[in-house]
Amino acid sequence: MKLFWVLGLSCCLFILPASAQEPKLPAGLSDNNEPLLPAGLGINVQEEQSVNEPVLPFGLLDSNEQAESSNDPKRIDKHIPRLIQKELPFHLSGFWEARGGLRVVDDPNEKQHIIAETRLQLRLHKIIQNSTLNLITDLIYDQIEENLPVHLNSGRGFIDLREANFSFSPMHFTDIKLGRQILTWGTGDLIFINDLFPKDFNAFFIGRDEAYIKAPSDAIKFSLFSQWAHLDIVYSPQFDSDRFIDGSRVSFFSPMSGVGVGRNAVLQSSKPDNGELALRLHRKLGSYETALYFYAGYWKSPGGINPSNGLALFPRLHVTGASIRGPVGRGIGNVEIGHYDSRDDHKGSNPLINNSEFRALLGYEQEIAKNLSLGVQYYLEHLLDYSNYLYTLPDNFPQRDQNRHLWTTRLTFLTHNQNITWSIFSYFSPSDMDFYLRPKVNYKINDHWITELGGNLFGGRRDSTLFGQFQNNSNIYLSLRYGF
Fold it and tell me: Which of 232, 336, 350, 394 has the lowest tally of Cβ within 10 angstroms?
């Protein structure tokens, strides 16, 4: 049914008459009231950003944003012959990319090549009176996982349907977007507390573009605007999980077996059929963006195990949280908190289901010199009902600390007339004693061509910690992209 829905929206893009006029967007359709996104989430070039948003400092933009504003019709006219563009009943942009990468250590559970693929992304955009149609599709040849059947939820196969949605404004204070869409909110830079929309951690760890950490949702989004505050309501009729680590591409530590596993023991899961609901109430207080959040659904990655069949489970989850972001000194600071209520293990007495948690984030970013920016974050996970957790923990399971501390640093430097971007994003946990480094250099050759060299490097004292378990997946990658 879901495939029928998104294909139906896709077909609408091709049957529209080329003579349709394109009036200006009504007031409600530009997200002028949306809070600014934090550094690292410039991935939302595919989202409905306002053209009136202030520009972020150099170094805080995503590499795609630095290279091109591919949703801008003026750039489309520049890169596609005017005659062809006039004949199309929609605006067309996109890119072609080739990307390859190797593990830097041997992994007995996975292939030596961690990524070897080429993809063509096509972005189709059409405005008709008071509504907008969007279609973003990736056509992929993946040498690592070739001949897989198309599966839209996991993104596997030769098609990854990123967006297929229809948006309109039935009233001046309401926007509605229906269909497959990329959703994000919160203030963290590659740390997510109240953003309970699906993520693709396989893409993130193997060296795909940073934009691909966000996976699509099949949902309906209502945005209600008022002078006092703005309310976003997102309902997904069917639960959209993360594209989580299951061993098919990235090896991981299995607490059930006590060793690292991969393609030899792919994790099987049982997903709920019910829907999920996310709410955000946000407004500006002076120069500060404030928000309250609520989520009712399930743990987005497996948060439990069925002992009878070994299937991974997605227990029920409620999250309430808040955030504030705004100027602090010469930079921008942010605070975000969230309470994770694990509804199927409310008292923490079931060792096979995630305990409830309290999570907090403090962040700060600043341009410390010309073309040089620095962002730092401190993140805390506090495990609730810890005494019950220890009492019921099986003897062969690794023990979690009650408090997991994590520091992140993002350093970005632009050189050669800002055509080369040198950056490194690092995670370090002093409680787990593990780390994850993401160095990369991005070279904008000209208006069309971009190349990038980067890596994903993991390490830790124990194989059971979050980053320590991925040591055998450390890799380097190289990409070449042509944008149009």
Answer: 394
Provide the residue type at 328 as one letter. V
CB 410 within 8 A of CB 374: yes
Dihedral sign, CA of 127, 128, 132, 137?
negative
User: Sheet holding 269-270: strands in order across?
Assistant: 269-270, 312-313, 304-305
d(CA 48, CA 32): 9
- Please report, as a single letter, which amino acid is at residue 354: N
Q: Where are the domains of the chain?
A: 2-483
Q: Is 332 left (phi over 0), alpha (psi -120 to 50) or beta?
A: beta
Residue range 17-27: mean pLDDT, rounded: 38
CA distance 408 to 402: 20
Give whole-number Cα distances, 102 to 28, 113, 116, 243, 472, in Å: 47, 5, 9, 21, 11
Which homologous superfamily does the CATH classification assign to the domain defined by 2-483? Porin (2.40.160.10)
Place of tokens 């190349």: 451
Given the structure tokens 């399971």, which residue do they identify?
397
Closest-CA residue to 322 (of 370, 290, 283): 290
* pLDDT, tens digit, 9 for 90 and up, residues 149-185: 999 888 889 999 999 999 999 999 999 999 999 999 9
pTM for the full model? 0.82
